[in-house]
Amino acid sequence: MSSSSDEEEGSSSTLVAIDTDKNSKYTVKWAVDHLLEKNSSCTLIHVKTKSLNRNEFDSETKQGRPPTEEELHHLFLPFRGFCAQKGKKLVLQDSDVSSTLYDYIIDHSIDDVVLGAPC
């Protein structure tokens, strides 16, 4: 991963958190339309939750379990066109989504963060 010192002078970094929700597509489009400029970069991030109890994980239904690698690949497909030139994809795994996002934002000196919410 690049740090702020590796970025071009005057560039900004935008982090867009996505999920399997259909509203994520609108969130990414809004970020690209309103925040991305010539010297900016866009990172699409998804936090893959992990269960703390292995037995609990094995008994969960498809809707209740974390996505598989193939499902994660499909998660990013709709966003190819939005961030094709300037975008990165990132999947982090942790049981606490908000803390994981916060730590990444602080550690990588992210300028703009876009989180979606149902309308």
Automatic annotation (TrEMBL):
Enzyme class of the recorded protein, top EC level: transferase
Reaction(s) the record says it catalyses: S-ubiquitinyl-[E2 ubiquitin-conjugating enzyme]-L-cysteine + [acceptor protein]-L-lysine = [E2 ubiquitin-conjugating enzyme]-L-cysteine + N(6)-ubiquitinyl-[acceptor protein]-L-lysine
InterPro entries documented for this protein: Rossmann-like_a/b/a_fold, U-box_ubiquitin_ligases
EC number, as in UniProt: 2.3.2.27
Domain of life: Eukaryota
GO MF annotation: an example: ubiquitin protein ligase activity
Keyword Oxidoreductase: no
Keywords assigned: Ubl conjugation pathway
Protein name per Swiss-Prot or TrEMBL: RING-type E3 ubiquitin transferase
Organism of provenance: Pisum sativum
